[in-house]
Amino acid sequence: MDPTATAVTPYLVSEYERITYYHGISLDPPELLYRSDLLHNPFPLPKVAPQICSLLKGRRIRYSAVMAARFFTHGEDGEGSLGPIVIWISTHPGTTTAENAHDASPDIISLLEEAGVKGAVVEWYEGSVETLAGPPLLRVILGTDPPITEDDDAQGSVALFFHENKTEHSQPSARVLGTNTADYLFKGRGVNEIKALIGVYGSDAEHLATEIAALEQHLESNDPDEVEEAEAGVPAKQAKLAEIKQNIGVLEDFYNDVNAQWSDIERRNLGHVDWAPMISVDVEGKRYTLDLGTFELDEAKFKDNFKGNVIDLGCCSSTPPNRQLRIKGIVAPQLLANPDGVDSNGEPCLVVLKDGGKTDVTVGKYAGLEAYVADDLGQESIELAIYNYDKQSGDFSAKGDSGALIVDGLGNMVGIPHSGMPKGASNHVMFATPAWWAVEKIKEQYPYADFYRTGW
Q1: Of 128, 147, 173, which residue constitutes the final position of a domain?
Q2: DSSP class of residue 278?
């Protein structure tokens, strides 16, 4: 016997089982210490996905993502059915044939059955993981200004703000910093879309003015129905025209202010980069992606309007007050592994949202199973896979949404996105680093960081 070997006690509970076994019985459940059927009724561990990845690599199949999903099929009569568990495998385009997929699928099914997963199917498609990007945030507003569209080439949204409070040497610090995916910290954006939107509103105003003039002619009609219709229509369209003219005025003021204050590229800096580690994968630990950087905020530009970490829900919600969802916590890894919510089909998931630089406020879902991802160079990582909520809700993300904080409906942080699998103008999945792990990494650099202050 190896004298340096460590004996494994047969009644020790695994770390995963210890923290997740009683999940769901309360908001803060107890942790499992021991159970008498431990040896005869082992707790299923999330180990099948790594085995599938190893099997694929053994067959020289270049996978880009291995995910789990279930698909709901809607029938013509309004009814529908939920399909089986699907092991959803994406391979790098042009690298895998249908024959390769056919030959590997039975072995994958065998692995699943050995783990107690019965009736699952394996589905294959081609796709590559691509990074996402989006524009920096503007001042948080009360929801009274007209919407402003974003440039297609804009890069990055600020994910989080935090107060440093103390330096790593425990010296007092008044610094406030922002975080984002690393590539954003070195890119800018334009504002030509403001002028374009003024033109759109102008066209709408001209169209309404023409309609009002036509209705006013019917006020003198001998047909009482036409007169009644005109009397109702003219004031309604005049009110709409007045609203559009007001929006044009707000946009023109904003455009003039931007031109006056921000036309000089040197004046567009929000702050200075403070920490920008190399984008990497934590290969020795959780295998999550570290795509994160921080910058120190320019107090003169932020202090007066600083409100801390909030998400502007815009027209998507009338609550909370001012439609601003305050960030107040982090979804723990136990809850990520065992979501306590359900989707519209009654399946367990976390319903999540984000305010992205490209797609604005969108709703998606995280089903509790991480994705195993491999890039073009073969670098493997583990990510949260956020799916579109449903067809009616549209895409959860697009190029331009990198760094937009993902939260649940209570304002708890879920993840920080950095990539997806876009195809044309659509994207069916967004990959994100768990927020709890990202915050841990930030606190390694800033031990006294406070993410929940509501003022400067």
Answers
A1: 128
A2: P
Instruction: Tell me 386's DSSP state.
Output: E
| 3-state class (DSSP) for residue 343 | coil
270 and 295 Cβ atoms separated by less than 8 Å: yes
Question: Quick one: what percent of the chain has pLDDT higher than 90?
Answer: 43
pTM of the model: 0.71
Are 143 and 312 contacting, i.e. CB atoms less than 8 angstroms apart?
Answer: yes
10 Å Cβ neighbour count for 325?
Answer: 22
**Residue linked to tokens 């007092």:** 172
260: helix, strand or coil: helix
What are the DSSP calls for 16-51, one per residue? Answer: HHHHHTTTTSSSSPPPP---TTTTTSPPPPS-HHHH
Q: Regarding beta strands 121-126 and 86-91, do their DSSP bridges make them parallel or antiparallel, or are they unpaired?
A: parallel
Q: Radius of gyration over alpha carbons of the chain, in Å?
A: 26
Give the pLDDT confidence of 410-425 residue by residue, as tens digits. Answer: 999 999 999 999 887 7
Total residue length of the chain:
456
Residues 318 and 429 in one domain: yes
Bridging pattern class, strands 329-330 and 412-423: parallel
Examine the domain organization and report whether 305 and 375 are in the same domain: yes
Is residue 124 assigned to a domain?
yes
